[in-house]
């Protein structure tokens, strides 16, 4: 194999390595904050229900809605990770 072909193969390997790193960072960092947010939503909902049990139904409905919004951010990060990994350069 000549030097040009070896250089081309090294470049392809280099690009593939950084694409995998970009995928890992996108989903890793993109899932941290929604996870923390979901925990804080649950904590706040449980505290509210503990203080005023009569509003449990309303608080539960709102908490589920806000958890879905937070989870959507993690799903967007997953989509970005897939795009970063499967789009050819």
Quick overview of this protein structure:
The protein is mostly helical. Helices cover 90% and strands 0% of the residues.
Give me the Rg, rounded: 22 Å
Beta-strand residue percentage: under 5%
N-to-C span: 24 Å
Most strands sheet: none
CATH class of one domain: Mainly Alpha
SSE succession:
HH
CATH homologous superfamily annotation of one domain: F1F0 ATP synthase subunit C
Give the total of beta strands: 0
Helix content: over 70%
Give me the CATH fold name of one domain: F1FO ATP Synthase
SSE layout and pairing:
Blueprint: H1 3-51, H2 56-86
Helix pairs in contact: 1-2
Can you describe what's shown?
With 89 residues, the chain is an all-alpha fold. It has a domain at 34-89: F1FO ATP Synthase. 90% of the residues lie in helices and 0% in strands. The protein has helices spanning 3-51, 56-86. The model has no long low-confidence stretch (mean pLDDT 88).
Question: Can you give keywords for this protein?
Answer:
single chain; 0% strand; F1FO ATP Synthase; 89 residues; 90% helix
